[in-house]
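If I may wish for something, please walk me through the protein I am sending here so I can picture the backbone:
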Amino acid sequence: MLDYSLLKSKFFLLAGPCVLESLEIGRQVAEYLVKNAPCPVVFKSSFEKANRTSADSYSGPGIDEGLFNLQKIKDEFNLPIVTDIHEPSQADVVAEVADILQIPAFLSRQTSLLQATAKTGKIVNIKKAQFMAAEDMKGAINKCGSNDKILLTERGTSFGYHNLVVDFRNFVKMKSFGYPVIYDVTHSMQEPSSGATSGGTPQYALPLASAALATGAVSGLFVEVHPNPKNALCDASTMLDFEQLDALFEIIKPYCDRG
């Protein structure tokens, strides 16, 4: 079981492909992370992406196959797992595999979902919605009741219709709540609903990650990775390839050394 105190004391990564397209792609990414990451890693991938721009977009293998494959990756690479849940009914079954249950940004105000997730006793990662202010996250925290194993993730704020911006004050504000704060690097690069799929600007990932770390309020980074993002079935415009991930590793190494 993943020790929450580790996430409070060490710099860490939540990293992996957007959706678990196949076990083989998951294995490729997990192997690369284990061999190269300079800090503790939690493997991230979704068994289902319930919020897609188009009804025709690939949404994942589903909960049964997805959790089966995540368990195999967990066992083979000795990696803890983080994955999204979308409905209260999924909480207990996902908690059998995942070490961290993640609340998607658009669902971060859903009381029953937060309560069911918290009741599993697992670590809860709450992604701040694009329409929420940092201080609004206090309400989400309170909905978790007695479970205080909480992570707070910033993924940008809606600016107009098809743009996201990162308000760096949010990192400092959310850190003051007493929980580790994560910067979701790749999702903050999205350009939502750019045609049939979301677009993105991954060229800004490294400078914005550097800026977020410079606030001194970020305990970890969330980054989606794929061996060949251009061919990915989900978030192809924002995921990083292994070369870009290596560049990110160089940026975070000093923070990993400090713990």
